[in-house]
Design a protein that fits this description.
Blueprint lengths: L9 E2 L2 H7 L13 E7 L6 E4 L5 E4 L14 E4 L5 E3 L25 E6 L5 E5 L14 E6 L4 E7 L11 E7 L4 E6 L4 E6 L5 E6 L12 E2 L2 E2 L2 H4 L6 E6 L5 E6 L6 E6 H4 L6 H4 L4 E5 L6 E3 L5 E5 L4 E5 L7 E5 L10 E2 L5 E4 L7 H4 L8 E6 L8
Length: 382
């Protein structure tokens, strides 16, 4: 099945917003500098990244909210609006349609996120749980794709001891200079570190009391994440961002739990002599920010956060103690992550996760689900 035709970079107008029926949270105002670049009728995008050469890649989990209409886990969105499964159709075949015994190490099972490294290679995080029913052996993995050759060049299968059945490898950042990958794991909780040269893997930081928990969960468009759902989530980092020099890993607590941003020196995480529980002693509290599902750092040290409560994007400048709301629009209904393009534009996938029955009590989702571009050069703060 093909997706609906795409009008490339179509400008959102008040009429389109009204047609989709999005409602703003408090503090959000329509912003006409936000452009829709892709939309999907079934799958909810969780990642949107632009390479140095201007290629756009989107991740689409095959999770419990997907169905047989799922087309691909990783899509390249071309300038004319056409889409191509990436790196090829075979990697993107629905895992439940493969013959028995198919190797999950060479097929996407349930892709969660993506990141680009300093060499412009695309890395895919696959938490390996078909439709969220439990991680299968060999399913959880980190896949490196050479964009020049459009081929996978490295697959690191996550050790089952680090990615058991109820685990959830979530977000990743890659430090090519030092040769390490950092991955949040939000099922058991904590941060995994992989030595890309040796393949050695370990849990370098555990979930725990070091994360502040807000009394109430986020309220988005009148829907509050219930305490019963929050109680099932470990006190764990979720979104991460790596400083330009590679010295610091910034950690954002799970978006259902906390507004607090933290950081830790990567030297601590990479030191195998430091026990995972003891690593928490080295964590620094950066600021009280927002309930955020994704964060991103630019070269100047500005931290961008998805502000789920205000349907927007917030920014924390270096040394600041408070965030500023730099973009808000009712169409940004649960912004999931942030991709920073080479020209400074932000690419934001919108997943509407708060409208799912698990949070809202009944399914209030309003497809399609979209990816938006925010051009900061022409942006006017609401």
């Amino acid at each position: 099945m093909r997706y609906s035709p795409l009008l490339s970079l179509c400008r959102i107008t008040a009429g389109i917003v009204a047609a989709f029926g999005y409602m703003p949270s408090a503090g959000a105002a329509p912003d006409r500098t936000i452009d829709e670049v892709a939309s999907f009728p079934v799958d909810r995008p969780t990642g949107a990244l632009v390479s140095r050469s201007g290629r756009l890649f989107v991740t689409l989990p095959y999770s419990d909210y997907s169905d047989e209409r799922h087309v691909a886990s990783v899509m390249e969105i071309h300038a004319d609006g056409s889409r191509t499964p990436f790196p090829d159709a075979e990697w993107n075949r629905r895992f439940d349609t493969l013959p028995p015994g198919a190797d999950p190490a060479v097929h996407f099972v349930n892709v969660q996120s993506e990141t680009l490294d300093a060499e412009d290679h695309l890395w895919i995080v696959d938490h390996g749980s078909p439709r969220g029913k439990g991680v299968i052996p060999g399913g959880a993995k980190l896949v490196e794709i050479d964009l020049a050759a459009n081929k996978t060049i490295l697959t690191v299968v996550i050790d089952p001891a680090l990615a058991p059945e109820k685990s959830f490898v979530n977000d990743a950042r890659i430090d090519i200079k030092r040769g390490y990958a950092y991955i949040t794991e939000t099922g058991v909780g904590g941060v995994l570190v992989i030595d890309l040269a040796t393949g050695e893997q370990r849990r370098a930081l555990t979930a725990g009391e070091w994360i502040d928990v807000a009394p109430e969960g986020p309220t988005v468009e009148g829907i509050t994440v219930p305490q019963s759902a929050r109680a099932k989530v470990p006190r764990t980092p979720d979104g991460i961002a790596l400083s330009d020099d590679g010295d610091w890993l910034y950690l954002q607590a799970h978006p259902w739990l906390s507004r607090t941003t933290y950081r830790i020196r990567t030297a601590v995480l990479c030191d195998a002599s430091i026990r995972p529980d003891d690593a928490a002693q080295h964590i620094e509290r950066v600021a009280s920010t927002v309930f955020a599902d994704g964060i991103q750092l630019d070269k100047e040290g500005n931290l961008y956060l998805t502000d789920v409560e205000r349907n927007g994007i917030a920014r924390l400048r270096p040394g600041a103690s408070e965030v500023e709301l730099i973009a808000a629009d009712r169409s940004l209904s649960w912004p999931d992550s942030i991709g920073l393009a080479p020209n400074g534009a932000l690419y934001v996938p919108v997943a509407q996760f708060h409208r799912r029955a698990a949070v809202a009590g009944s399914d209030r989702s309003q497809p399609p689900y979209a990816v938006f571009r925010i051009d900061l050069e022409r942006h006017k703060t609401p």
